Amino acid sequence: MSILRTNPPALHSTPGYHHLTITEPARFAFLAGQCPLDADGVTVEGGLLAQVDQVVANTLTALEAAGASPADVVRTVIYVATTSADELSAVWDRLNASALAEAFTTASTLTGVTVLGYPGQLVELDVTAALGTAPAR
């Protein structure tokens, strides 16, 4: 399997992610939105950045269960319950300083939203990873 990450020259420069990710041939793992919930299903305390840290930990666990790593991620969408560009930037910076950082060099979207699904939830991460070619049958 190959993963090509590229920025077409006619598009604007990016702060680390790529506009386009192409894989061939591959199977994919589509992770459910990873939320800042601990193993007991409780939203972690400590504010936005603590929630980002929990989302990172949960995402790494899910990727490992799929037999994938951050290098295998081909698409991310980051949802943050905020209208603040500074908070969006803080989330992006925290993710890119984490053990999951390599996942954000691929096609990525960061967006502010009004509300997320759990009480007190401030961040959620949607991830797609390429797993390689399908096993022989």
From TrEMBL:
Record's protein name: Enamine deaminase RidA
Which InterPro entries does the entry link to? RutC-like_sf, YjgF/YER057c/UK114
